[in-house]
Amino acid sequence: MTMSVPARRRRAPTIHDVAREAGVSRGTVSRFLNGGHHVSAVSARAVEEAIRRTGYVVNRHARSLITGRSGSAAFLLTEPQEKFFEDPNFNVLLRGCTQALAAHDIPLLLMIAGTREEQRRLLRYVTSGHVDGVLLVSSHTGDPVAEQLVDAGVPVVLCGKPMGPGRMAHVAADDRDGARQMVRHLVELGRRRIGTVTGPPDTPGGVERLAGYREVLAAAGLPADDDLVETGDYSREGGERAAARLLARRPDLDALFVASDLMARGALAALTAAGRRVPQDVAVGGFDDSAAAVASRPELTTIRQPWDRISQEMVRLLLTQLSGEDTSAVILPTELVRRASA
Amino acid sequence: MTMSVPARRRRAPTIHDVAREAGVSRGTVSRFLNGGHHVSAVSARAVEEAIRRTGYVVNRHARSLITGRSGSAAFLLTEPQEKFFEDPNFNVLLRGCTQALAAHDIPLLLMIAGTREEQRRLLRYVTSGHVDGVLLVSSHTGDPVAEQLVDAGVPVVLCGKPMGPGRMAHVAADDRDGARQMVRHLVELGRRRIGTVTGPPDTPGGVERLAGYREVLAAAGLPADDDLVETGDYSREGGERAAARLLARRPDLDALFVASDLMARGALAALTAAGRRVPQDVAVGGFDDSAAAVASRPELTTIRQPWDRISQEMVRLLLTQLSGEDTSAVILPTELVRRASA
DNA sequence: CTGAAAGCGCTTACAG
DNA sequence: CTGAAAGCGCTTACAG
User: What SUPFAM superfamilies does the database record attribute to this sequence (chains A, B) (predicted)?
Assistant: First the structure.
């Protein structure tokens, strides 16, 4: 079936071949390649032709050696791989970042470094110049990797608010206000005994969403007893267990604010198992507006995180840093999405 | 909190600095770096010291420019991202390959190219030398990307048997024999009306596992009517729908061989919804022995794919190709794992 | 075992 | 606008 011998790469054409073919100098070819400034229309056309005829592709190693740039960026996850696979938000974020960078012709490498050993390798890899910058995603912050990268002079943009000291470039949704919107909605529904399943206390989402919940209850003059609060781990199972504990302690609950859609699905299972109807007996609000929200039965009322804009802003901040400027932070608004569960 | 000004990268130390510091030539330093052959113990020690003192790290762009090697490999997925996230097998495979390559100090880049546009970019990226070889995963074969990479002279190893013509290096589990083992098991359980949910007909698993099923039924003298066969798409939902159709058509089914664990979980849901008990009324066998198998209720009897060995072999074949040798294929045995569902 | 030298393919001031 | 030239940091025969 194979018609021709596969074209084993012989000597690949270089800029020199193109120059000879086009009848110009290598300098001119290079200038054409790098934006075409100071190249006459005639030369440009000749070079263009020559590139096509020779099948020339730039040797990125040679280019990188001079420019000190690799021309690519990393999407780094400093969590165990499972996390990544389970959470639908990562999916959306990764796709968004890939597309935003593609518009600048910068490929995005996905790197996962959950273990210490992987993180050591990663650091070596990045600092040895394979990548110009890093988009870092990890829910648990105070992440040592972030610090180490920044210390090594690598441009880094975080997804989510950093919890440690020091200012790091980051993009995040307004967690606290999102929580406020949701709990306010539950209150307006007439609910009075509103529990919450939070994220881990060492994550910004865990802290901020709980704070927003408390603010609204206080403002509404509703009880915010500690036994209305349970901690989850952003996993579906964790949400189910947390909701079950809550329900055992407070069978009189009439609403539940769950700090992620995935956990909310778990909570739904716990409620169903306990014979509660949603939303009639217990109204349930999630957070994220991820794929999990619409896959759920009933569909989840939730808080939309603007993932598209988050990824766009992350890329923008990274590019800014690459061009040598200092960057700061961007906080994006969240929005209540009403569906069936509350 | 920050004690010192972050060490902004000034001029990084080069091999030249190390040579001067160690009192040897750059050639000697380079030889030390590349295996230490033809370097006296004394020189070696001096270089070692100098490297530590200067904090030297090799500039990989310069090295790559000469060797023509990037020193890294890609784990490429030519499917929509969702696929990747849903299927627990990918997770295991990715981790296995990463570790096997790490032992050779080769970082693995995860690249996802589901759309045509992404595949174009990818091809440019890989052929421009960013990566020395590709581990390619895609269930639907006859994948044009694989052919294109091979044509461009890029070392490629496939996971799974290629369906197209031409010989491509690949590693796969023995799908057909796995199916035989499972169906034989169902027959030995005394089941006589055994249905199957297959994978897509354009995937090797879809074809081979169905073939194994048919072989055993024929050998056992059992009916293998077409109405006992439904096609799934390897997703949980697909499995659920397929099983429901099967059940509607053949309410007398007493066993079901489902070509993936994920689909088997869907099938379980369909059976439960139809009021069937598993395994009493209908015995269910899966395929993969993925995380889904033990997460399921009841736990799935299934066919174990040796993912660890598969990833090890994929890496071995890739390294072989990188060293210039031709490679062929490796087929690994599968194994029946008995749990509760059959 | 080791140094001097050539060269990998490209970019970028520097003169014109 | 354009060419000649220097140089990025490394590896690798080639002589010794």
Answer: lambda repressor-like DNA-binding domains, Periplasmic binding protein-like I
